[in-house]
């Protein structure tokens, strides 16, 4: 898996509406990459619903969350509509198959899909949080919120230190 402190690798893939998403376009914001194995599964659905539920909390912390799996754009669109996902962008890491998951070392090459993981990238493109979850576990989004809040407090503390 990628490690905290590493520079995040840039990528460009489509969301559920066919719009291109390039990670580098979000410099200055914090980004949550929430990898899940496959659409149309119950635990993955709850993971994406948790992103949607926390959309405003993420936004208040100047962060944007993306769900990512190896499914195609049409599949992602139908799935997002069935779940009522309107604010969260769900990305299709379809072709080259699992390329983004491979970049972030969360691709399971024996099963052909990504493992379940959350990766948080700061506004400078550095990885600040990484956690992989059991396939049968819905990721705890409070951990992601805590990581964002801790980084925010650390940044504010640094800004308040007087120069000598």
UniProtKB/TrEMBL annotation:
Q: What is this protein called?
A: Peroxiredoxin
Q: List, alphabetically, the InterPro entries matched.
A: AhpC/TSA, Peroxiredoxin_AhpC-typ, Thioredoxin-like_sf, Thioredoxin_domain, Tpx_Peroxidase_subfamily
Q: Which Pfam families match?
A: AhpC-TSA
Question: Is Oxidoreductase included in the keywords of this UniProt record?
Answer: yes
Recorded GO molecular functions are: antioxidant activity; oxidoreductase activity
Q: Is-annotated flag, keyword Oxidoreductase?
A: yes
Q: Where is the active site?
A: 44 (cysteine sulfenic acid (-soh) intermediate)
Q: What keywords appear on the UniProt entry?
A: Oxidoreductase, Redox-active center
């Amino acid at each position: 898996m990628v490690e905290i402190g590493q520079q995040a690798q840039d990528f460009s893939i489509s969301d559920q509406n066919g719009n291109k998403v390039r990670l580098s376009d979000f410099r200055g914001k914090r980004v949550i990459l929430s990898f899940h194995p496959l659409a149309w599964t119950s635990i993955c659905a709850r993971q994406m619903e948790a992103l949607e539920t926390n959309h405003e909390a993420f936004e208040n912390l100047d962060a944007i969350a993306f769900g990512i799996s190896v499914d195609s754009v049409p599949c992602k669109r139908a799935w997002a509509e069935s779940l009522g996902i309107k604010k969260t962008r769900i990305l299709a890491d379809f072709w080259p198959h699992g390329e983004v998951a491979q970049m972030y070392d969360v691709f399971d090459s024996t099963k052909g899909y990504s493992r379940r993981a959350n990766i948080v990238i700061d506004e400078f493109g550095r990885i600040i949080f990484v956690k992989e979850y059991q396939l049968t576990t819905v990721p705890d989004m409070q951990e992601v919120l805590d990581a964002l809040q801790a980084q925010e407090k650390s940044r504010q503390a640094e800004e308040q230190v007087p120069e000598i």
